[in-house]
Amino acid sequence: MQRSHAHSRLRNKPDMDPLEIQTRAGHRSSPPSTSSLAKPKSKPTKLIILLIIATVAIALGLFFVCYSTILSGWNRRVSLRYSVVIDGGSSGTRVHVFRYRVESEKPVFDFVGDGGYASMKLSPGLSAYADNPEGASVSVGELVGYAKGKVPKGMLKKSDIRLMATAGMRLLELPVQEQILEVTRRVLRASGFQFREDWVSVISGSDEGV
Predict the structure, then answer these.
(1) Which residues cross the membrane (predicted)?
(2) Is the pLDDT of residue 66 over 80?
């Protein structure tokens, strides 16, 4: 009788639900992930950050110093000017090449420094070509060539050239003076320098003294 009751209890016991089996299996502890075990990356220390900032500051300082030096030198070169004056005297014709800089809109000449001043003289004077005005072009052309050798090529068009005839030319008749002056104008016009027609003239005795 007892055995029959035992068998009936075994038969009446419900089967285990498969979902419950899966749920229980899911409760098994999973191994810790490798990401949770990895140590956090170390951050740069304050000392390293300060060193980086100091290095950048020094580099910027050197850059601005170099930039200021280069800019100052460039501005000084830009302010340089050249001027050429041909003095047609009685005993000879001399060319003067002046280099100067502009400060506060005023020219400042340096006759001592290298390249600040140069000159060359040829004989005879312009008045000696009274019978052959075209002959004046040879001597004036040679003087112009000398001046071009003293002025940087890129500055020719910005550098003025003038011719001032003095005592010897004043003794000639006006038509002869004008013939010689016109020959010199033609040479200066083709020189490459900055030139105007009225920059060639016979100056008075009072102007010559100045």
Answers:
(1) 47-74
(2) no
Helix axes 174-189 and 136-150, enclosed angle (nearest 10): 40
The torsion defined by the Cα of 175, 164, 81 and 107, in degrees rounded to 10, comes to: -130
Q: Please classify residue 192 by burial: count the beta carbons closer than 10 Å to its beta carbon, then call 0-12 exposed, 13-18 middle and 19+ buried.
A: middle
CB of 94 within 8 A of CB of 86? Answer: yes
Q: Per CATH, which fold does 80-209 belong to?
A: Nucleotidyltransferase; domain 5 (3.30.420)
Does the annotation count 178 as an active-site position?
no
Mean pLDDT within 16-36: 48
Q: Which two tokens stand for residue 11?
A: 């038969």
Confidence of residue 56 (pLDDT cuts 50, 70, 90): low
12: left (phi over 0), alpha (psi -120 to 50) or beta: alpha
Sequence ranges of the domains in the chain: 46-78, 80-209
Cα 169 from Cα 128, distance rounded (Å): 9
Q: Which residues neighbour 152 within 8 Å (Cβ) at sequence distance 6 or greater? A: 82
Q: What's the token pair of residue 87?
A: 């003095």
Provide the 10 A C-beta neighbour count for residue 63.
Answer: 10
